[in-house]
Design goal:
This protein has helices at 17-39, 70-79, 197-204, 250-253, 255-262, 479-487; strands at 117-123, 126-133, 137-141, 149-153, 158-163, 166-171, 176-178, 209-212, 223-226, 231-237, 242-246, 293-294, 300-304, 307-314, 328-335, 343-351, 360-369, 374-383, 394-395, 399-403, 408-415, 431-440, 455-467, 490-501, 506-512, 522-531, 533-542, 545-552, 556-567. It is mainly beta. The chain folds into 5 domains: 1-46, no CATH class; 54-111, no CATH class; 197-246, no CATH class; 268-481, Sandwich (Jelly Rolls); 488-567, Immunoglobulin-like, CATH 2.60.40.2080. The strands form 6 sheets. The protein has a 7-stranded antiparallel beta sheet with strand order 1-2-3-4-5-6-7, with no helix packed on it. The longest helix is centred in the first third of the chain and has 23 residues, at 17-39.
Length: 570
C-alpha cells in the first residue's frame, strides 16, 4: 500500500517543528510494520525463487491466473469439469467418487463409500455415457438413460443388448440369440453364408408347411400337416374359392398298410434270395459241425483259430412264440481268439454275382444270445468266380446288431456296388456271399461290422435277404420248392440196378437227379453193396444225372445198391 508520509511537509522555507514530527511519526510506524513483516521472512524474490514451506491461500481461485488450492484441484480431477487426469490410484484406492463428497482430509480415498458408477461427458453437467454395476450386473450405458445399454450378468456370463429398454440380443459362450429380425446385406454366395428369406422363397417357390391339429389360413401352395390325422393337405385357391386338398393317403403310405395290402403276394414269390432260411433241410444231418465246411443245406461255417460247434435243434410242438410254423433253429457255440485273422462266421453263397449287383438289399433274421449281449455282424462280398482271369473279390463293409437274451427280429440294409467293368471267370461260378460274423480279430474288423473278439452261444432262425431297404414278413416257401432249391446244389440219394452179364463186363444204368443241378456235380459213393459185381463208378456226369456202373465178377446175374452224394455247391 502507498506510504502515508506527506512529502509536502514541512513547507519549504517555512518549516515547523510539528509538521516534521508528524512525518517522523508516520515513518516510524511504517518502518516498524515493515520490520515486523521482514522478521517473518525470507521472502520469494519478485523475479522467482524456491519456497521451503507450505503456502496457504485464502480461497479457491476465481480468475484464470489465480493460484489454485489443493481443494480446487481435487474437485477438478475427481469430480468432473475440465482439467487433467490425476495419477493412477494406489492399491486400495478408487478412481471415482461415485457421487460421494470430496474427502475433507485431502485425497485419502478408502474402500468407503462403495463406488458403483462412472459418468463420462463433455463436462460435469453433460454426461454422455455411463459405466456402472449393481449386485448382479455390469452396465455400459450408451446414453446414460438406463434403456440403451449392454448388460452383463456376472453369474450366468450372459451379455444382453438393450435398445429402448427391450432386449434385442443375447450373447453367451454357446450361442447368440437375436430377438429381432436379422437383416442380411445380400443373398448368400458360398455354402456357409446365412440365407435371406427371399433366397429361400426363390428356391422353394414360396411354399410353407404348418404342423397343427387345426387348419391354418388357406393360401395357394401352402401346406398343412394335420398332426391328429397324420394327413398332409395342400392349400388350393382358384380366385373364387379356397380349400385344403388332401395331398397323400396315409392309410396307403404307411409301411404297415403296405404290408397289409400286399400280404397275399408275400407268401411264395421268391423275395428271399437265400435258400433254407428256416433251416428245415439238413441232408448232411443236424451236427454238431465242428470243422469248416457245410452244415445244414446251403449254410457253411468258416473259422480260423476260433473253436466251437454248430448244431441244428428242433423246436417244441407249436414252434417258437413268435412263429408257430418254426420247426428248427441253429445253435452257434463259439470261442473267439484274439489272433488277428481269427474269426467265426456262418455263410451262404448266392448264385451269380450279377443278380444283386448295384442293388440295395436288406438282411433280416431272428436271434438271441444265451448270456449278456453279443454283437452279430452282417456283411456281403462279390466273388467273380474261377477260370480265366476274373476280377478280384470285393468285400463290403459290414454292420452289426447287438443281441439280447430274448428272441427278436433284426435287420441290416447294405448296398452292393455295380460290377460294370469287372471280368467274370470262365467256370460259371460267380457268387454273392452273405457272412454272419460271431467273432472276429482285427484283420476282419471292418468286414465283420467291428463285432470284436467274442465268446458265447447264439440261436438263429429265419434268415432272409431281399432286394430293397425294408424287411418284409419272413418268406416260408413250399416244402417241395425248398427241398428242390437245396438239391440243386447238393443231393444225397441212392442208386440200384439188377442185370445179367459175363465176367469182367461193365454193367449199369442212367441215374437221373431229382432236380437239375447248378452245374456238373462231383459224385461220391457210400454204403455200396454188390452181388457178383465190384468197382462202382460214375460216368457221363451232367447236371441232369450220371451213369452208375460196376463190373460183373463172373457170368450170371449181378446187382448193385449204393448211396451217392452229388455236390455242386459254390
Amino acid at each position: 500500500m502507498p506510504s502515508l508520509i506527506d512529502f509536502t511537509k514541512p513547507i519549504y522555507g517555512t518549516p515547523t517543528t510539528q509538521s516534521v514530527r508528524d512525518n517522523f511519526q508516520i515513518a516510524q510506524v511504517e518502518i516498524t510494520d515493515l520490520q515486523n513483516i521482514i522478521a517473518e521472512g525470507p521472502f520469494v524474490p519478485l523475479d522467482g525463487g524456491e519456497m521451503t514451506g507450505l503456502l496457504t491461500l485464502v480461497q479457491d481461485p476465481i480468475n484464470g491466473d489465480h493460484a489454485a488450492t489443493k481443494r480446487y484441484v481435487d474437485n477438478i480431477a475427481f469430480g468432473g469439469g475440465s482439467g487433467g487426469a490425476p495419477d493412477a490410484p494406489k492399491d486400495g484406492m478408487f478412481y471415482a467418487r461415485g457421487g460421494a463428497a470430496t474427502p475433507t482430509d485431502g485425497n485419502d480415498w478408502t474402500a468407503d463409500p462403495l463406488f458403483s458408477s462412472l459418468l463420462i461427458g463433455s463436462d460435469k453437467d453433460t454426461p454422455l455415457f455411463g459405466i456402472r454395476a449393481d449386485a448382479t450386473n455390469n452396465y455400459y450405458d450408451f446414453l446414460n438413460d438406463g434403456q440403451n445399454l449392454f448388460q452383463f450378468n456376472r453369474a450366468t456370463k450372459i451379455l444382453d443388448l438393450k435398445l429402448n429398454n427391450t432386449v434385442v440380443a443375447n450373447f453367451s459362450d454357446t450361442d447368440i440369440l437375436f430377438n429381432k429380425p436379422l437383416t442380411l446385406s445380400a443373398d448368400p454366395t458360398t455354402a456357409m453364408h446365412a440365407v435371406t428369406k427371399q433366397y429361400v422363397d426363390a428356391k422353394s417357390g414360396g411354399a410353407s408347411l404348418t404342423v397343427a391339429d387345426t387348419p391354418p389360413a388357406i393360401a395357394q401352395g401352402k401346406m398343412w400337416f394335420n398332426s391328429n390325422q397324420t394327413q398332409l393337405y395342400v392349400g388350393y385357391d382358384d380366385g373364387t374359392s379356397s380349400q385344403w386338398v388332401i395331398a397323400n393317403n396315409q392309410n396307403v403310405l404307411t409301411t404297415g398298410a403296405i404290408n397289409t395290402a400286399l400280404q397275399p403276394t408275400y407268401n411264395n414269390v421268391g423275395r428271399n434270395v437265400l435258400h433254407n432260411g428256416l433251416f428245415n433241410i439238413a441232408q448232411r444231418g443236424n451236427g454238431a459241425f465242428n470243422a469248416n465246411g457245410y452244415t445244414v443245406d446251403r449254410w457253411a461255417v468258416w473259422r480260423d483259430t476260433d473253436t466251437g460247434a454248430i448244431t441244428r435243434l428242433a423246436t417244441s410242438v407249436g414252434g417258437m412264440a413268435f412263429d408257430e410254423s418254426s420247426a428248427y433253429y441253429m445253435l452257434v457255440d463259439f470261442t473267439g481268439s484274439a489272433v488277428a485273422n481269427a474269426h467265426t462266421a456262418l455263410y451262404q453263397n448266392i448264385e451269380d454275382v450279377r443278380r444283386l449287383a448295384g442293388k440295395t438289399v436288406t438282411v433280416s433274421f431272428y436271434a438271441l444270445c444265451w448270456a449278456g449281449s453279443i454283437k452279430l455282424g452282417v456283411s456281403l462280398g462279390q466273388n467273380f468266380g474261377t477260370g480265366g482271369s476274373p476280377s478280384a473279390v470285393v468285400n463290403i463293409a459290414g454292420q452289426s446288431v447287438t443281441l439280447n437274451q430274448a428272441w427278436q427280429r433284426y435287420s441290416v440294409t447294405l448296398t452292393l456296388p455295380s460290377i460294370a467293368g469287372k471280368t467274370l471267370g470262365t467256370n460259371d461260378n460267380s457268387l454273392t456271399g452273405l457272412n454272419l460274423f460271431f467273432s472276429s480279430g482285427s484283420a476282419n474288423a471292418i468286414r465283420s461290422g467291428n463285432v470284436g473278439v467274442q465268446t458265447g452261444k447264439v440261436q438263429l432262425y429265419g434268415v432272409q435277404l431281399e432286394i430293397g431297404n425294408v424287411a418284409t414278413p419272413l418268406e416260408k416257401p413250399d416244402p417241395q420248392v425248398n427241398l428242390a432249391n437245396c438239391q440243386r446244389f447238393y443231393l444225397d440219394s441212392i442208386s440200384s440196378w439188377y442185370g445179367t452179364g459175363t465176367g469182367g463186363q461193365s454193367m449199369g444204368g442212367f441215374v437221373p437227379f431229382k432236380t437239375t443241378m447248378r452245374g456238373v456235380p462231383t459224385i461220391t459213393f457210400y454204403s455200396t453193396g454188390y452181388t457178383n459185381a465190384s468197382a462202382v463208378g460214375a460216368y457221363s456226369i451232367d447236371p441232369n444225372g450220371f451213369i452208375c456202373n460196376a463190373v460183373a465178377t463172373a457170368n450170371g446175374a449181378a446187382s448193385l445198391f449204393t448211396g451217392y452224394k452229388a455236390t455242386a455247391d459254390l
